């Protein structure tokens, strides 16, 4: 095929997910690690931002610098480098870096201003955004698109029910959460494109490993983080002495963030963007809501329990619709 574009049948994607997809050995391992690391990072972020009065931009800068340094060490140890790079490499990494920077900063702004459960509820709209973006950016279509879309409704309704009894509203927090959601969906779609598209287009010559994609995008994000850090950081907080305990928390947070991100990129190599957002991320949000209830002591209602059951049912419906909707349909992917 032409080097600029390639057509891949959706059935091939379905078969790949059946053989080594979300429930395959490697993918399931990455899924479990991603869940555990994400929740640990979430709790630590909330602790630093709320109880210690940390600044979102500063914490975001710590996370980005940490993951860049750790990623560089990983690449040096593995001696993983490309002798040449794919077309538009700089622009692709700049775009991904910008999205990572925006996702981290907006997510921390949201977490500082609203409850964890509220932030996770807003993220329940991710499946709709990802379906639309995968359709227009990757060209993914299914023969039973209406079934896939319909199966996402109970997922989001269930997540909304999970926190209906204790949602607190903050216009800044809500706006940041919604913006984070949209940018994160875009990042998922473009990450998938970088992880797989070059495999088809350039015959495996420029395929990026998760650690490489993590390093390059983090490095670009650090450069873009500097203006945001200068504009958003309260310099008074910088005057606070960095105690050994606080330094340890920041280092731990950065390491957890790096491990979480690498696991997410690795998982995206096994599944489609819609499956990543609609199944993997959705279940993570549901678990985060329930675990945050236990950690932060929020009361559990009958509505929340019913919502969790609805989420599980919706994910099952989505998986069924996705698995039976790809026959004879094609998807155009442009490099």
Automatic annotation (TrEMBL):
Spans through the membrane: 27-45, 57-77, 89-111, 215-240, 246-268, 289-318
Sugar phosphate transporter domain sequence ranges: 29-319
Superkingdom in the source lineage: Eukaryota
InterPro entries with a match to the protein in the record: EmrE-like, Sugar_P_trans_dom, TPT_transporter
Location(s), subcellular: Membrane
Recorded family membership: Belongs to the TPT transporter family. SLC35E subfamily.
Entry protein name: Solute carrier family 35 member E2B
Lineage: Eukaryota, Metazoa, Chordata, Craniata, Vertebrata
């Amino acid at each position: 095929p032409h080097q600029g574009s390639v057509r891949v049948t959706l059935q091939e994607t379905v078969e790949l997910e059946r053989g080594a997809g979300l429930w395959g050995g490697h993918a399931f391992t990455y899924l479990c690690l991603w869940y555990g690391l994400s929740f640990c990072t979430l709790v630590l972020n909330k602790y630093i931002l709320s109880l210690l009065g940390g600044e979102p931009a500063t914490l975001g800068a710590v996370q980005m610098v940490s993951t860049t340094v750790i990623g560089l060490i990983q690449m040096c140890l593995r001696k993983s480098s490309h002798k040449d790079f794919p077309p538009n490499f700089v622009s692709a990494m700049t775009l991904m870096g910008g999205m990572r920077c925006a996702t981290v900063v907006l997510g921390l702004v949201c977490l500082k201003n609203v409850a964890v459960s509220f932030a996770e509820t807003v993220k329940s709209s991710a499946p709709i955004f990802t379906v639309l973006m995968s359709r227009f950016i990757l060209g993914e279509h299914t023969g039973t698109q209406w079934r896939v879309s319909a199966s996402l409704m109970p997922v989001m309704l269930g997540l909304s029910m999970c926190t209906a009894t204790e949602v607190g509203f903050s216009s800044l927090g809500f706006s940041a959460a919604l913006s984070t959601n949209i940018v994160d969906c875009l990042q998922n779609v473009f990450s998938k494109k970088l992880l797989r598209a070059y495999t088809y287009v350039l015959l495996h010559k420029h395929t990026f490993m998760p650690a490489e994609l993590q390093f390059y995008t983090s490095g670009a994000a650090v450069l873009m983080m500097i203006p945001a850090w200068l504009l958003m950081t309260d310099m008074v907080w910088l005057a606070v002495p960095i105690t050994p305990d606080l330094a340890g928390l920041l280092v731990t947070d950065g390491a957890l963030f790096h491990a979480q991100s690498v696991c997410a990129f690795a998982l995206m190599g096994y599944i489609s963007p819609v499956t990543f957002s609609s199944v993997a991320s959705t279940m993570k949000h549901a678990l985060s809501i329930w675990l945050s209830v236990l950690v932060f002591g929020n009361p559990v209602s009958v509505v929340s329990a019913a919502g969790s059951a609805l989420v599980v049912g919706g994910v099952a419906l989505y998986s069924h619709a996705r698995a039976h909707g790809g026959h004879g349909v094609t998807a155009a992917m442009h490099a």
